[in-house]
Amino acid sequence: MLKYKQQHSKKRIKNRTCTSDAQFQFYFWIQRKAYYNVMTRKKYMVLSMTGFATSTAEIALANNSKMILSLSIKSLNSRFFEMTCKLPSILSNLEIPIQRVLQKQLHRGHIFLHIKITNQEALQESVTPSIHTIQNYLDAIEIIQKKFDLHDKVTLSQILQLPNALQNEEVELNEEVEAAIVKAAYDLSVQLIQAQQKEGALLAHDIKQQLTSMQSKIEKIQTLSMQFIKEKKEALTHVMSLLLAFPAEQEQKSQEQCLLEAKKSTLLYEIEKIDINEETVRFNSHLINLASQFETTETAKGKKIDFIIQELNREINTIAAKCSQITISSLAIDIKSELEKAREQGQNII
C-alpha cells in the first residue's frame, strides 16, 4: 500500500509540473520538504512578516565550470503575498517557478529577492569576432577619413573596444542547473523563516504580556462593577423603604415623595446600565481565544489575531459606554491602549 501511494504521488507530481527527471527529482524533494515543514511547524509558532537573509551558492555548469550566485531576500508587511524579483537576464525565465515555490513557504508579506551572478565569466563558453559588424565599422571609418582627409590608423585595440565587435556565447543553462537555482532560492527562504521566527517570538512575548495586563484590568473592572451595583442596590433599597413610609391612599404626592420617585427611577436605570457582566464574559472569552493562537501549529495566524483584537475593542468600547464610573473608565482606557499596541504588533505577524 505504501509503495502504491509513493508511486501514485510521483506520477501525479510528474504529470502536473515536471518535464524532465531533474525537475521531477527537485519537485518531489520540495514536496517532501514541505511535508517536513508542516510536521515540524511547532518550531515556528509565530512568524514575523519582516525578515532578512543572505546566502551564496555554487552550481556546476555543463562546461565544467561553477557559477557562483549571491542571493538576498527580505520581507515586509503586506496583507497578501507579493514578490519582487531582481534576476540576471539569463535567469529571467525562473522568476515564476521561484515565486511559486516561495509562496508555498512564506504565505504572506512583500518579498524582495535579489540574485546576482558574481563570476559572470563562468558563463562564457566562447568569444568570437563579429566579422560583419567590424566590416561595417571599417567601412564607416574609411568614409570618414576620405570625407575629412584624415590619415590616422585604426588599431586592433580600438576595434575591440567598439560595441558588439565581439560576440560572447554563454553556456546554456540546462534543467538540472535551473532546478539547482530554484532550490538555492528555496534554501534561502528557509533561512528567512528562521529570522522571522526569532522576531515572531519577541512579538508573541510582548502580546502575551499585554494579554496578562488586560486580564488583570478586566478582573478589576468586574470587581468594581459588582461593587458599584451593590452600592446602587443598597441605595435603591433605602429609597424604597422611604417611599413605603408614605400613606398609600395619599391623593397628592409631596415634593419629597416626588424627589424619591425620581431618585428611584435614576437608580433603576443606573443598575440596569452598569450591568456589564455579559460584556466582561465575552471579553475574557476573546482573551482566551487570542492566547490560544500562539499555541497552534497553523502558520498564518496574523489575520485571526487582528480579527480577535477587533472583537476585544468592540467589547471594551461597550463597557466604557455603559459604565461612567471614573475608575472603570480609566481602566477601560488603559485596556484600549494595550489593545492598540497588540494590534500594531499583530499586524507584523504572518
UniProtKB/TrEMBL annotation:
InterPro entries membership: YicC-like_C, YicC-like_N, YicC/YloC-like
A Pfam family per the record: YicC-like_C
Domain Endoribonuclease YicC-like N-terminal, first and last residues per copy: 47-204
Keywords associated with the record: Endonuclease, Hydrolase, Nuclease
Coiled coil: none
MF terms (GO), sorted A to Z: hydrolase activity; RNA endonuclease activity
Protein's UniProt keywords contain DNA damage: no
Required cofactor names: a divalent metal cation
Domain Endoribonuclease YicC-like C-terminal, residue spans: 264-349
The keyword Disulfide bond is annotated on this UniProt entry: no
Entry's family note: Belongs to the YicC/YloC family.
UniProt-recorded name of the protein: YicC family protein
Annotated source species: Candidatus Chromulinivorax destructor
